[in-house]
């Protein structure tokens, strides 16, 4: 029987069913102990392999997405930011916004939780099997302008237009370097709009200021036209998380006995 087990494990390995090969013998022993039927044993074996494959593919999608951190919606302190509608966020977590191609804009001062919410929703999408990607506006436009110069524009553009969900962080934190950067940003937004892939944007600037950000009011209007169509907008009016932590540290330092 031992020789037969080894043959089956080798065959499973040859078929690239690595996890099934690892658990075959232990499961076979458990099947004997609990008097499983052949179907029950096969179901458990395949379940182990399927779970391993799902986890491996999820890990690959998460690596590809380049999220700056792992955050969940449950991690968000809605009491600290009461201007954020919890029911709306929970509805977005169903991922219906993907099927409906609804862009999401998060407006607010630095540190108020915009990126947390955007990454949490994009992570939920990746966990559900969609492809996601994270970038800052500065990094994306710098990469696309460089690609335009070195002849890799088409492939680099796909980096930002192929994923089902794209997070563009910190729009307006720095002004666009030149018109090529503004044009590249428009190409990403317009292509995703045409492909019906939702884009999640965080910005600390009001939408009327986007003409100044992009250095061209016409380009800014064209970008907003695509992003605002059927969009969901969060205007987070609360304070900064980081300043809260800084304030808490000051209190602890000032009042060490408390």
What does the model show?
60% of the residues lie in helices and 10% in strands. It has 258 residues and is of the alpha/beta class. A five-stranded parallel sheet has the order 2-3-4-1-5, with helices on both faces.
At a glance:
With 258 residues, the protein is of the alpha/beta class.
What's the arrangement of secondary structure elements?
Blueprint: H1 2-14, H2 18-34, H3 38-65, H4 86-92, H5 96-99, E1 104-108, H6 114-127, E2 132-136, H7 137-150, H8 153-161, E3 165-171, H9 179-195, E4 199-203, H10 210-214, H11 217-228, E5 232-236, H12 241-254
Parallel strand pairs: 1-4, 1-5, 2-3, 3-4
Number of helices: 12
Extended strand count? 5
Fourth CATH level, the homologous superfamily of the largest domain: P-loop containing nucleotide triphosphate hydrolases
Low-pLDDT stretches: 246-258
* Terminus-to-terminus distance: 68 Å
CATH-defined fold name of the largest domain: Rossmann fold
Residue share in β-strands: 5-15%
Which structural category do the helix and sheet elements fall into?
alpha/beta
Count of the domains: 2
- The Rg value, from CA coordinates, equals 24 Å
Main sheet specs? 5 strands, parallel
CATH architecture of the largest domain: 3-Layer(aba) Sandwich
Q: What's the CATH C level of the largest domain?
A: Alpha Beta
Percentage of residues in helical conformation: 55-70%
Arithmetic mean of pLDDT: 87
Oligomer: single chain
User: What's the SSE pattern?
Assistant: HHHHHEHEHHEHEHHEH
Overall outline = elongated
Describe the strand arrangement of the main beta sheet, using strand numbers: 2-3-4-1-5
């Amino acid at each position: 029987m031992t020789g037969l087990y080894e043959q089956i494990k080798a065959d499973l390995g040859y078929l690239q069913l690595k996890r099934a090969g690892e658990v075959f013998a232990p499961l076979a022993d458990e099947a004997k102990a609990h008097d499983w039927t052949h179907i029950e044993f096969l179901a458990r074996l395949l379940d182990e392999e399927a779970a391993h494959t799902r986890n491996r593919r999820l890990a690959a999608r998460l690596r590809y997405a380049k999220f700056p951190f792992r955050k969940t919606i449950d991690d968000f302190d809605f009491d600290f930011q009461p201007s954020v509608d919890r029911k709306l966020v929970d509805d977005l977590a169903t991922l219906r916004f993907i099927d409906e191609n609804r862009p999401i804009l998060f407006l607010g001062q630095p540190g108020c939780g915009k990126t947390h919410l955007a990454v949490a929703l994009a992570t939920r999408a990746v966990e559900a099997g969609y492809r996601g990607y994270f970038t800052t506006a500065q990094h994306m436009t710098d990469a696309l302008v460089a690609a335009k110069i070195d002849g890799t524009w088409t492939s680099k553009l796909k980096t930002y237009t192929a994923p089902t969900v794209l997070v563009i962080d910190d729009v307006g934190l720095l002004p666009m370097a030149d018109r090529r950067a503004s044009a590249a940003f428009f190409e990403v937004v317009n292509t995703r709009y045409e492909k019906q892939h939702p884009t999640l944007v965080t910005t600390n600037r009001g939408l009327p200021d986007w003409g100044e950000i992009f250095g061209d009011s016409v380009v800014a209007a064209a970008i907003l036209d695509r992003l605002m169509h059927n969009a969901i907008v969060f205007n987070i009016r609360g304070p900064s998380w980081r300043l809260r932590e800084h304030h808490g540290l000051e209190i602890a330092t000032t009042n060490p006995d408390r």
